[in-house]
Amino acid sequence: MALGPWFRRFQPTGTPAHRLVCFPHAGGAASFFFPTAQALAPVADVLAVQYPGRHDRLAEPGLTDIGALADAVYAAMIDLPAIPLTLFGHSMGAVVAYEVARRLRRAQPGAALHLVVSGRRAPHLGRRDDPRLDDDKALLAHVRALGGTADDLLDDADLCELILPALRADYQAVSAYEWAADGQPPPCSITALTGDQDPYATPFEVEAWRQHSRDPFVLEVLPGKHFYLVDQTAAVHRILRDRLTRTE
Asked: Where does the Thioesterase TesA-like domain start and stop, copy by copy (predicted)?
């Protein structure tokens, strides 16, 4: 079936028993999860979310509201065949995935659903100070410090001009996001991942996702900083494979 603008399938599968939907970090694109699709396509139908404002959606304005992003992704998922589902988001993507999970739970309370959050403090803890959105140099310096973007890209002024609109939109969305208790039960079971040296999502802050989880809740701390998953690809894929086969 046609996936539309919101999803990319890098590795086709036959008749999968599970589906994994991956949500990129701020400034990130669906292609970040190409290795994940290669590794896990035999186990699941791996879809990566493509936010507006990047790659083949470059001409579209980025969305500056997490709720609007979650609404759009949720609406795009409605017509997908119903099979056990795992949502996996890193950094900003963890918040978008969580909000999509809340929408799915409200609409389909009995569906098989698991959430994997990575590199993001629990939503009720509030937000940290974000870089000044009116200062491109500060924003790019922040992205460089996170370590998830190649230095040669950030050193190229022309490429930076292409990625800055999406970065600004994403950071505006993250900065404006405020978690609101809605009286609903936790959306699903949660696996939370982080790097042991991540100053933006410490193990203590990530463990607090337990308050948003149905049992079982699992915390996995791996070596590395905010983009630990780039160096710990095999370990992350092992954890995802294990969770996929348990989402039933």
From this structure: 21-240
pLDDT of the residue at 2: 65
The verdict on whether 175 is a catalytic residue reads: no
Tens digits of per-residue pLDDT, 135-179? Answer: 778 787 877 877 767 666 666 777 777 788 888 899 899 989 999
Considering the domain boundaries, does residue 108 fall inside one?
Answer: yes
Residue 1 inside a domain? The answer is no
Single-letter amino acid code for the residue at 178: E
pTM: predicted TM-score of the whole model, two decimal places: 0.93
Catalytic residue of the set 91, 118, 189, 213: 91
Residue 194's domain is classified under what CATH number? 3.40.50.1820
